[in-house]
Amino acid sequence: MKLIQDTRCYTDVCVNGKWFHHDHCTTTAYMLKGGASSNIELAKMPTTESELVDLLAETL
Known about the structure:
By secondary structure, this protein is α+β, with helices and mostly antiparallel strands. Helices cover 18% and strands 32% of the residues. The protein has one domain (10-58). It has 1 helix and 4 strands; from the N terminus they run ββββα. It has a 4-stranded antiparallel β-sheet, with helices on one face. A hairpin with a 2-residue loop joins strand 1 and strand 2. The longest helix has 11 residues, at 49-59.
């Protein structure tokens, strides 16, 4: 699925049993968990949900 290129949009995805939040039009994501969030810098700005999952999987 293509990600909408709008800063008001976001996608939450599960990768290897862990949930991540990605704000569209950025190269960052963070793990959804109670308390402090772990920020992740993605290698590039994803344009599809599958590309987002691949980029997150690379960081785990």
